[in-house]
Amino acid sequence: MPLTQSREALLCLASISPRRHELLTQLGVPHRVRAANIDESLRRGEAPRRYVARMARAKARAIAALGEPLPVLAADTTVVLDGEIHAKPRDRADALAMLGRLSGRSHLVLTAVALAWGGGTRLRLSASTVTFRVMVPEEAVAYWETGEPRDKAGSYGIQGYGAAFIRHIRGSHSGVMGLPLKQTADLMRAAGIPYWLGQGPEMGKGNGNGKGNS
Fold it and tell me: Going by C-beta distance under 8 Å and a sequence separation of 6 or more, which residues neighbour residue 139?
């Protein structure tokens, strides 16, 4: 049976991340995007799981508070090694140091996804283990020069050149990319928001389109 075609937005994605837009489009969900500008500072003593959950909720609520009439979907991703959060790199040296720590080891990727609608916010958490092969310093430098690590948690992107470093993944591939599709679908189903409504180039167009991640 063919999927029903629809172009009318059913929700607002609180992110201008191209990969999150692509993943939501993969679910066949017509949507628009808006950037969520919030303070992403880590609180003293804050655990990684609590941090990503707080960020996802804050992004969703920030857009909802602007008067967005549609349900608002938001996500936040972080890389955790030895209990320490590895966020987006500050600069080249920070990125190379992160990649050096990840080399030849397994780390945790946490992605929280939140949906704000009807005055409330629901949340789901995805946890995946990613194992890197050993990389030589020259590879890390060359990877930095591609530009890909600059806006990625942990200084790598699994959907791009960084896939060459991945030896094994246990968990959600889409969660490591930034939007766990199973958890996203769970939230939408609970809210009565349909998916599998078709895909096309018009999906995702609306306020807030641009480059970068949020």
Answer: 165
Phi, psi angles (nearest 5°) of residue 168: -160, 145
Q: Which of 76, 91, 151, 186 is catalytic?
A: 76
Complete domains list, the chain, with CATH: 11-191 (3.90.950.10)
Q: Within a 10 A sphere around the Cβ of 58, how many other Cβ atoms?
A: 18
CA distance 144 to 150: 8
Distance CA 197, CA 176 (A): 24
Q: What b/e sequence results for 66-101 when a residue is b if at least 16 CB atoms lie within 10 Å of its CB, and e otherwise? A: eebebbbbbbbbbbbeeeebbbbbeeeeebbbbbeb
Active site residue 82: no
Q: Residues for the chain: how many in total? A: 214
In terms of Cα–Cα distance, which of 40, 48, 43 is closest to 15? Answer: 40
> What's the rounded Cα separation, in Å, for the pair 147 and 95?
11
Distance CA 178, CA 86 (A): 15
- Residue 198 is predicted with a pLDDT of 61
Residue stretches of the chain with pLDDT short of 70 = 1-7, 198-214
